[in-house]
Design a protein that fits this description.
Length: 231
């Protein structure tokens, strides 16, 4: 049951992204390779960065503490390893031959990461957390993948601006991930002493999630519509 709760939201988004690639489907073998690359990116993050959490400084300032934990403790290492595996698996592959492919592969990488993370959270904290993450953290990782994949494709197919787009590919995914985590961690940190600020942070979080969804669908549509296989 817990495995089903953990994996089901991942499968729903994977199927959606797969069927949005309506002009030329990607090979299932390569998609699975990308997915398990995402799992490995989660393992790499846990092995190399989670042990450092015990020595991370604790700031008395709630805002600074939330910012540090969100970016240095989560967004930067997680998106970096996703990017490394995305580049390693996909960049020189012959099947990476149109704009939307970058989004497809980046989302599969992101959801491989999210799947392992989700399983660990659900087994540690229970089914309720799994249901909550199905509507928050899992789509959040997917939307970070959409952002990363959007610019990853531009870097691949606009070589004269490759460095700039590769930078944006990683930078904007980190920013989106970091803001997402910051608002939640900040809301939790001030919930007892300043409940009004906590409420405002949660409202901003919901606005930000809505913005990410809107941005993600717009970027998906942009790359689908620009397909070289569209007739």
């Amino acid at each position: 049951m817990l495995i089903a709760i953990s994996v089901f939201p991942v499968l729903v988004i994977l199927v959606y992204i797969y069927y949005r690639d309506k002009y030329e489907k990607e090979p299932l073998g390569l998609l699975m390779k990308a997915f398990f690359g995402g799992v490995l990116s989660a393992v790499a993050t846990m092995l190399l960065f989670v042990p450092l959490h015990n020595i991370f400084p604790e700031f008395y300032n709630v805002t600074l503490n939330a910012f540090f934990r969100s970016f240095a403790g989560a967004a930067i290492p997680e998106e970096f390893f996703k990017f490394v595996f995305l580049y390693w698996i996909v960049w020189n592959n012959k099947n990476f031959n149109e704009n939307f492919d970058g989004i497809v592969y980046a989302v599969f990488i992101a959801l491989g990461f999210a799947c392992l993370e989700n399983i660990l959270y659900v087994y540690q904290y229970g089914a309720g957390v799994g249901v909550m993450r199905a509507f928050s953290a899992v789509p959040g990782h997917a939307l970070d993948g959409v952002i990363m994949g959007f610019y990853f494709s531009l870097a691949r197919f606009i070589p004269q601006k490759r460095t700039m787009y590769l930078f944006k590919c990683l930078f904007y995914a980190i920013v989106a991930h970091g803001i997402y985590d910051f608002l939640l961690i900040y809301a939790s940190g001030v919930s007892e002493q300043q409940p009004m600020l906590s409420t405002i942070a949660l409202l901003l979080f919901m606005v930000f999630i809505f913005y990410l969804w809107k941005l993600g669908f717009r970027k998906i549509k942009s790359h689908v519509d620009s397909s070289v296989f569209r007739v």
